Amino acid sequence: MQAFDNNLTSVIKSLKSSYGLAFFNNLTLQLHQLINADYTFIAKIDKERYISQTISLVAKGKIGDNFEYSLNDTPCADVSDDSVCIYPERICQLYPNDQLLIDMKIEGYLGTPLHDSNGEVIGLIVALYESTIINSEKIVALFELFSGRISAEIEREDKEKKLTELNLSLEDKVNERTTELSSALDRLRFTQDKLIEQEKMASLGNLVAGVAHEINTPLGVAVLCGSNIEDALEKLNSKVKSNSLKKSELEHLISILNQSEKSLSFNLTRAANLVDNFKEMAVGINTDDLMSINVHLWLNSLIGSLRPMLHKKSITIELLVDKNPPNFITCPAKMSQVITNIISNSAAHAFEANDDISDHQVIISAKVCSDILSIKISDNGKGMTDEVKDNIFEPFYTTKRGEGGTGLGLSIVHNLIINNLSGKLEVESTVGQGTSFNLEFPSLI
Predict the structure, then answer these.
(1) What is the CATH number of the domain that holds 241?
(2) Residue 271 shares a structural domain with residue 401
(3) What is the CATH number of the domain that holds 145?
(4) Where are the alpha helices (DSSP H) in 52-170?
(5) Cα–Cα 20 to 30 A to 28, which of 110, 160, 224, 419?
């Protein structure tokens, strides 16, 4: 008890000179530690929209990102109606439609209302436990002890905000933009899965566009060769019919036919190889079937499909792998997406059109050892800062937001490797020295 009192005194002293977000985060964190909760948050109530918006959240001892949620079918709705709610256990059974509590596996819930100077409920303070709550009376008393100071700070912030808004000549535009952003965030929550699925197909779409662009060149040459052959045959036929064919003319026409035929054959073969590579890479794109693959042949086909996209950006790609590796059992569709997304990310971010790098290059090395496939994808591009490297796998994080980047490519890579392929992923990068993605996959037998 003496330790609790000392800690409480320490909390009170630490709050004397703090305001705003620092106050809320400091208080929430210290209350969280005093009551040994799994989650603790302070939230404001929006009665018109019937939602709650956290202004400070502590999860498992750390400050978390704020969020908003509907009050429908939640115990927080009861708190917003000016009730102290104490449910030491079985909270999910009492509120079976509160999906957030179910997903978080919450067992105990305790919430108290926050009142403004007119006695109206403006917010709530809540503690969530993954186990049964003990000493709930002490927690309620602690919350009520600080509720007045919390409410006063919420009111102070609200009044300060209103005063600032009155002095802004662009108030209407600010409100309009805020509404748009709020609406966009709501839509984002509902469409996130759809966006991720679209991103899965985006790399395939880029390959299709690249192959289509690249295949035009050999087909165009083939058409020209066919036209040359047709012209030469017409001339030959005309000379033969008129009995005016000279030996030198025959030799010249045969030379044209030979050269055109060779060029025609070469370019049609080149076009066929592009199509074959693309077809092999695309097989199984919509299936999760496991297959036994020859790593060298499979990677070679995949890289063949990627070359047109890289060629457009003056990037060369090299494959370093044993030509006769042991067969490896995996899901080629997911593996293709992982490698394609990483290489597409390098093409989009590692190099600039006017950089000082003389030879833009991507190198893929691979080996199979003891049922483990190790793949290293390296580029000699501009590299990443520590900040970028620490965030590249976060959903929607991108350094090219204004250039069409969605920030989902590497997030999908991370999820596929860790969750679907049971693999490992490490990134090494230094500014000015390029980036390497080190991948490990176990055989999926």
Answers:
(1) 3.30.565.10
(2) yes
(3) 3.30.450.40
(4) 75-80, 91-94, 99-103, 136-166
(5) 160
Nearest CA among 406, 403, 410, 303 for reference residue 353? 403
**289 three-state secondary structure:** coil
> CA-to-CA distance for 143 and 145, rounded, in angstroms?
5
- The per-residue pLDDT for 212 is 63
Q: Is 244 helix (H, G, I), strand (E, B) or coil?
A: coil
pTM above 0.85?
A: no
More confident residue, 92 or 209: 92
In a domain, 174, yes or no: no
pLDDT score, position 2: 45
152 with 220, same domain: the answer is: no
Q: What is the predicted pLDDT for the residue at 303?
A: 85
Residues 150 and 283 in one domain: no
Q: Identify the burial level of 151 via C-beta atoms within 10 angstroms of its C-beta, where 0-12 means exposed, 13-18 middle and 19 or more buried.
A: buried
25 has pLDDT over 80: yes
CA quadruple 353, 358, 359, 365: dihedral, nearest 10: -110
Q: Do residues 153 and 224 both lie within one domain?
A: no
* Per-residue pLDDT reduced to its tens digit, 269-308: 777 766 665 565 555 445 567 888 888 888 888 888 788 7
Q: Which two tokens stand for residue 3?
A: 């330790």
Q: Do residues 14 and 117 share a domain?
A: yes
Domain encompassing residue 365: 203-442
Burial class (CB in 10 A: 0-12, 13-18, 19+), 125: buried
Closest CA to 44 of 134, 153, 135: 153
* 381 HSE (CA, 13 A, CB side): 28
pLDDT for residue 250: 76
Higher pLDDT, 140 or 308: 140
359 with 293, same domain: the answer is yes
244: tokens are 């005016």
**Token digits of residue 254:** 């045969």
Residue 342 included in any domain: yes
What burial letters (b/e) apply to 385-404, b meaning 16+ CB within 10 Å? eeebbeebbebebbeeeeee
- Cβ atoms within 10 A of the Cβ of 333, count? 21
Q: Look at residue 172 and tell me if it is in a domain.
A: no
Are 77 and 70 in contact by the 8 Å Cβ rule? The answer is no
Within a domain: 183: no
Number of independent structural domains in the chain: 2
CA R_g for the chain: 33
Return the top range by mean pLDDT from 60-74, 213-227, 278-292, 386-400: 60-74
Indicate the pairing of strand 316-321 with strand 361-369. parallel
Residue-level pLDDT at 204: 54
Helix (H), strand (E) at residue 42: strand 39-46
